[in-house]
Amino acid sequence: MTSLSFIAVAAHSAQHFALSATQFDGDDPFSAILIYRAWLSQPWDRIDISRTIVDLVFSPSETSADLVALSDEGDIYLVQATIKRAKILGAGVSSEDADGRGRTTLLCASGEKLWIAGDNGQLYSGGFSNGWEQITLQPQFQPAAMIPDNSGGVLLAGDMEIAQQLEQIDTSDPQAILSALRAGRADRAAAPASARLYHVLASGRVREIALPAVSHIRGMATLGGQEFCIFGVNGLFMSGDLDRGLVREDIGLSGQTILTAAAAPVGVILGTDRHWEVYDGAKTTPFSLGLINEEIMHPLRAIAADEGTLLVDYLAAPLWRDGAVWKVINLPQALQKRHFDADAFLKQR
């Protein structure tokens, strides 16, 4: 049976988080949303959706534990006892109402709103009750990361370039995705600066924030208080805040693409296209997890929470760090298959 690859994760707490496990197939999209609730006798729940779920967030607009999922076709799902669906008309590629805008790729909760971004300068804010308002950005802008600004708005980072076509990558293979990130790295490093950072206020007003002359952003993360970092191709790492601006730092990861980051007591945990690293403000060192076969890990996402740090790999079970100890969170293999085998699942309980 075909195994699914994780592509998105959201954490409400150490005891409650969710993963999107997907099989990429343009003709037959499919995702399994896996929800972990540690206090239940069977902590895992699974919801199958015939779309590619590209991002997840726990929404503050309903109750703090409501999960919201976004598909690349502009579908938004509120996951409760029953699932509520909304659609951004015109967004997507293959949906019947798609009008050429492209995929939706990013989902963020800030203040009382949900924020959605996508290819070709798409940006929307709103909710299931009030609908969705489109905010105008330049169509050449390709968003790569979005985080809340602590005031009801968002910070949105990306590059001014043409979106890469999904068909060019064998997205059924996590290694192919990483190989695509590595391909042409020298050419990208020599390209003109294209990175952009926008501060979008809760009112919808947009202002551009000055950045160093860089290109090819892959992500963004909060570091505590007002401070945040932006990272990407060829070891790109910048940190700062909106008042002081951002400063580029050489953290010793030239030749690697930084895919994710999270603040932790040991420093900033970084997931690259090679392994996990930790940056303590002075130097970057490999971050040993004390696991077998660490060399074949494919970092997807690091998330900081009050109780510790959650690490998620494209294929492996999630890891939770509490203090100095890493705990593997048991994820039954039956949940990672497209065709769910209930008997196999029950045997693994």
Short description:
The protein is mainly beta and 349 residues long.
Topology of helices and strands:
Blueprint: E1 5-13, E2 16-23, E3 30-37, E4 44-49, E5 53-59, E6 66-71, E7 75-79, E8 83-87, E9 104-110, E10 113-118, E11 122-127, E12 131-134, E13 141-148, E14 154-160, H1 174-182, H2 185-190, E15 195-200, E16 206-209, E17 217-224, E18 227-232, E19 237-241, E20 245-248, E21 258-264, E22 267-272, E23 276-279, E24 284-286, E25 299-305, E26 308-313, E27 319-322, E28 325-328, H3 342-347
Antiparallel strand pairs: 1-2, 2-3, 3-4, 5-6, 6-7, 7-8, 9-10, 10-11, 11-12, 13-14, 14-15, 15-16, 17-18, 18-19, 19-20, 21-22, 22-23, 23-24, 25-26, 26-27, 27-28
Structure, explained:
There is one protein chain. This protein has 349 residues and is mainly beta. It has a single domain (5-347), classed as YVTN repeat-like/Quinoprotein amine dehydrogenase (Methylamine Dehydrogenase, Chain H), CATH 2.130.10.10. It is built from three helices and 28 strands. Strands 1-2-3-4 form a four-stranded antiparallel β-sheet, with no helix packed on it. A four-stranded antiparallel β-sheet has the order 5-6-7-8, with no helix packed on it. The chain has a four-stranded antiparallel β-sheet with strand order 9-10-11-12, with no helix packed on it. β26 and β27 (319-322) form a beta hairpin. The longest helix has 9 residues, at 174-182. It starts with a strand and ends with a helix.
Count of the separate structural domains: 1
Which band does the percent of strand residues land in? over 45%
Number of helices: 3
Q: Give the class from helix and strand content and strand pairing.
A: mainly beta
For the secondary structure, the number of strands is 28
Share in helix: under 10%
| Global Rg | 19 Å
| Distance between the ends | 20 Å
**How can the largest sheet be summarized?**
4 strands, antiparallel
The CATH topology is given as Methylamine Dehydrogenase, Chain H
Low-confidence stretches: none
Mean pLDDT: 87
**What is the top-level CATH class?**
Mainly Beta
CATH architecture label name: 7 Propeller
Strand order of the largest sheet: 1-2-3-4
Give the overall form: globular
By CATH's scheme, which homologous superfamily applies? YVTN repeat-like/Quinoprotein amine dehydrogenase
